[in-house]
Amino acid sequence: MSAVRGPGRRRGARHAASRAARRRHAGQALVVALGLLLAGGAMLHAMYSAGRVAAAKQRLVDTADAAAWSAALWRARVLNYHAYSNRAILANEVAIAQSVTLLSWSKYFERLARNAATVGTVIPPARLVLEGVADAATLARESAERAAALEIAARGAERVGYRAILQASQEILHLSTQGFGASMVAAEVARANDPSFFAWVLPDPSGAWLELTHRADSDAERRRFADLVLASLDPFTAGPRSADVGLPVPCLGLPVLRKRGATMLSQDLERWEAVDTLSVHVNRPRRLRCRDGEALPLGWGAAEAGTALGAVVGTERGVADNPDANALAGTTISSFRAYSGIARVRELDYGRLADPRFPSPVLAVLARQPGAAVATSMSRGLAAGRMLPPDAFAGGAAPHLWALSAAQVYFRRPADAPARIEYASLFNPYWQVRLAPPTAAHRATALGYVR
Prior knowledge:
- Helix content is 49%, strand content 19%.
- By secondary structure, it is of the alpha+beta class.
- Strand 4 (255-265) and strand 5 (271-286) form a beta hairpin.
């Protein structure tokens, strides 16, 4: 009986011991599970905050790039505006020269028509023609004189003329590209990306932008612009408006008609002068030489814009060949004092540029975002307990995120333009913009703000 019951008791004892051991170890597994859950939560908390911070930093960097590019683009567009307005000012100068030219020629033709009887003694068939158009010539001269007065006053008046308005607009727009104006562009772009973003243009210790352009008012610079104006004149305006009519037989006393005319810019660049004359010349032998002499003025006319001299003083392009006719033209010269001389345009300051051929100033923008605006777990109240450590943006530990970016303004012909190199100037609107690395000076300046 005892032999049968012994093994059963032993098995029961073992089962009881096993159940007791399982009960003792069950509490330990719960602790491990809770620890793993806590570690996972902390890791998730850290990963969420780190991811949000990384995303915020990337957005801020992209915004800084956009702000720098936009501020530099504004500068490039202002430079292109300078190019267009310089061309407009050049065309304005050409229009003034054309006005005095047309008036001079119309006065010349009116005088020639009024002198029909005198002309008829030299060219008999011309008398009837000139007498028939005399009244029309007077009407044309009066119309040209009124038009020239209005044209020159509207274009050349010192303070309210078309040219003065263009020059003033250049100065206003140039001021808008300085630190404050460019910073407004950068800040607007930053706010458009995120209302919590703020950006501004850093001051440039090198002064590259301030030294890029200036008002070209020296004599040499004005002369260079005047050469451009003279090269842009049409052939009729530039002259010479000259012709010789007569037999090519020297020293026989035969009459020769000499038509002379030109439009000239004074040496001081303050006055346009146009003159047209026609005179009869006679070649006669004098002291074993054949000499040409003005015998009879037939037509003359002159006009001036700028400093009023009341006389024809230019001698270029053969206009001095008819001195008597020139003197008569000077007595009736039409003067327009509204013109104030060759314009002073905005141009590159080549003497101060490190690279006069291809200047490329760099603009740097510093952007920031308040740390409280970064959507971490702490800032969103997702980890308000005591078990998880605070992230870097809890309690104002990191007040701002920062990003530094830079862009460069440069001059380059469009890709579809003829393949040739063109140096930078403010007469062709080829200024563009690209992102560029910040300079060492910009980085040092940015560190001063971040600290």
